[in-house]
Amino acid sequence: MSRTVLFYGCGWAATNIWMPNLRRAGSFDFLCIDQHLFAQAAARGAVPPCLVLDSVEDLAAQTIDLAIVASPNSSHAEHAQALLTRGITTIVEKPVCLSRQDCAAMSDTARSSGAQLLRSCASCYDPHFRAFVDLVAGFDVSEILTVRAEWTRTAGVPSSKWLTSARHAVAGSSLDLGWHLLECVAMLLGYQEMDLKDASFRFPDASGTAFARWYGTEASGPEPVVDVDLAASLCLETAGGTSVDIKTSWDEEVSNDAVRFTVAGDRFALELETIFGLSRNGPRQMGITGHRHGERVDIRLAAKTPGRAHEIMIRQYAAAGFDPELLDQDLGQLAVLATAAEQIISQHDACREQALGSGDHHVSG
């Protein structure tokens, strides 16, 4: 029996990630709420990928089995609330919400309506990251002293105003790449609360912006304005005293895109080098190195196709009937992520204002 999925926002993530993977995972029909979809499709000489509704008020005449919020970052909480209020099981793309207040409101609504609230967290399903998690799991969380997480791209700025305009995106690489890393770090550390201790951001200058070619399917017309951070360095500390360093960059001067995690304690140090997302410019050799239990670790990891983590995540979500309990998700985890994200966004906004006012493109909070 076919199930009906509603997309609130039907941009690149909905049409290029969710729709094809849901089709492979089962029988689904699609609807969407997106006021700009007709115009975007017409500009490309195409037709919309699904039936388009004008607003949530039109849902009264529809039977919706699942909703996916894939609108701009600034709208995620508002759109999720509108769906949860109607008792609809809802998956929210990252960043799920931007503040503790939004998190509390969404959680309260989900509890009162009986709707399920799930996070999209594809990077946690990445096969290379899961292999890394399995190695780290041999040690208690209390033994982890430091965690470093880094995602750098060369010429990797998304060609979408949804991700590069502060009005839509809220923040740049620190939120686009940073939420992925934050979720992975939180998973490694058992979702402990994290406090932001220091932050620095790099904003665009007059030299221009290098947009990601593999993201070009969404771009049409002139290149989007970029008025959010291109790179960020974030220093956090968990309630248990673990030091966490997160670095993100859309346009680093490096030969290839890369994701690195380093986890260390008194008896071990492990590093994963891989790539996340849909980039086709990852490291030539990906693997896990370091030492544990007095033995050297050097594991070569097999190549993976771009988007593999999304494919695994969506298949497992469908197999679990989109039940967060079966997927080891809970609202307490979301509260941890929202608390950290709120602090990062606050520092980003203050530094952005300073950068725009002074012309200094490297700003520390």
Automatic annotation (TrEMBL):
> Which Pfam families is this protein grouped with?
GFO_IDH_MocA, GFO_IDH_MocA_C3
Ranges for domain GFO/IDH/MocA-like oxidoreductase: 134-267
Q: What InterPro entries does the record tag this protein with? A: Gfo/Idh/MocA-like_OxRdtase_N (IPR000683), Gfo/Idh/MocA_Oxidoreductases (IPR051450), GFO_IDH_MocA-like_dom (IPR055170), NAD(P)-bd_dom_sf (IPR036291)
Q: Where is the Gfo/Idh/MocA-like oxidoreductase N-terminal domain?
A: 5-117
> Any idea which GO molecular function terms this record carries?
nucleotide binding
What's the protein name?
Putative dehydrogenase
